[in-house]
Amino acid sequence: MKKLFLIVMACYALNARSQENESRNFLYLYSDSTIYAQKVRLRPDVMGSWTLRADSRRVSTQKVKFFNNEDGFYANTRKLNFLGEVSFAERIIDGKINLYQEVTYNPIPYEIDYYRFSDRRRQAVDTRMFYNKGLSDLKKVSYKNLSKDMADNQESLDLLKSYRKSRTTGTIMYVAAGASIIASAITLLSGSGLKQNGFTPYGHMPNYETTNDTGSFVLMGLGAGLGLGGYLIQSSGSRKIERAVEAYNRR
């Protein structure tokens, strides 16, 4: 009984510490150390490279895994970038699984030392986003990654499977749309809009008449319809990723 009480108290202390961290401005480094500050600012140095300032202290963005200030909570995505360049994603869903949206940052004209993230509008959840659990490394949003991290929640898994099915169906429709449009173009070009209809009795100039291009335009319309249908199906499927995250966080 005493051991159980100690475990409960330890969990409570860890949770309280996490809540305290969220209420303060800080930098969380890849070395698992935390730097607290009254102000956390992102700004360029004299060489034009981005640095983070915790009050008067300058910290290279290469060392910072997460940072928190009055604008929000941000994660460094450099380990997921092809060239390893530093960029930051804002946390848009907070829970057992955190979801991040990549943002850009620009200078604020009325405050010289303050660079704020712009384009903060909430986007639809898609595979360009990132997620993690707690303060673990970021992962890209994908069926493969999420299905592993949500394996203990059947509702979330069902939504992810539905997303994968929509994704596959949409891809098939895109391929069919492309094939229809290519076939339409080929039939139009091969006919060139005219066909030879013998020779006139006054010479060797061929006589042409307009061809019937209805089939080509039908194929073109079919291709456009399939393309639109594929887009709508995949857009609807992408929303199921967010629903899967929400279902997991409700648990």
Folded structure, characterized:
With about 250 residues, this protein is α+β, with helices and mostly antiparallel strands. Helix content is about 40%, strand content about 30%. The chain is built from four helices and 15 strands. The strands form four sheets. The chain has an eight-stranded antiparallel β-sheet with strand order 2-1-6-7-8-9-12-13, with no helix packed on it. A hairpin with a 6-residue loop joins strand 12 (about 130) and strand 13. Helix 3 packs antiparallel against helix 4. The longest helix is centred in the C-terminal third of the chain and has 38 residues, at about 155-190. The protein is elongated and about 75 Å long. The relative contact order is 0.10.
Structural class: alpha+beta
Number of helices: 4
Strand content: 25-35%
What's the β-strand tally?
15
Query: How helix-rich are the residues, as a percent range?
Result: 40-55%
Rg, Å, rounded: 28 Å
| Main sheet properties | 8 strands, antiparallel
Low-confidence stretches: 1-20
Strand arrangement within the widest β-sheet reads 2-1-6-7-8-9-12-13
Write the element-wise H/E pattern from the N-terminal end onward.
HEEEEEEEEEEEEEHHEEH
Let me know the average pLDDT: 78
Shape: elongated
* Distance from first to last alpha carbon: 27 Å
